[in-house]
Amino acid sequence: MSMSNQELFNRLQQLGCNPPAINDKNRMFALALIYNLELEQGINQDESLMEPEIIEEKFAYNDQR
């Protein structure tokens, strides 16, 4: 599925960005930014569904690394 430049612009706005006009020169950057922002949202949403103890263990594990 291909998104138009206007659809990319609108999606970036929905994700809280203030993007410039999307054109052929910055289209790939816009797609990558949307991908990264949606990935971060998914991770944050997953963490909000976890039990607090699991999150604390995850942070403790990351601190040890």
Write up what this structure looks like.
- The chain has 65 residues and is an all-alpha fold.
- 71% of the residues lie in helices and 0% in strands.
- It has three helices and no strands.
- α1 runs parallel beside α2.
- The longest helix has 23 residues.
- The chain is elongated, with a radius of gyration of 16 Å.
Number of domains: 1
**Which structural class fits the helix and strand makeup?**
mainly alpha
Q: Segments where pLDDT lies below 50 for 5+ residues?
A: none
User: What is the molecular shape?
Assistant: elongated
Q: What's the alpha carbon Rg, rounded to whole Å?
A: 16 Å
Query: What about the largest sheet?
Result: none
Strand content: under 5%
Helical content band: over 70%
- Helix segment tally: 3
The count of β-strands is 0
Mean pLDDT: 83
Helix-strand string? HHH
- For the terminal residues, how far apart are their CA atoms? 40 Å
Topology, element by element:
Blueprint (H helix, E strand, L loop, with lengths): L4 H10 L12 H23 L2 H13 L1
Helix pairs in contact: 1-2
Which key features would you list for this structure?
65 residues, mainly alpha, elongated
Concise summary:
The chain is mainly alpha-helical. The chain contains three helices and no strands.
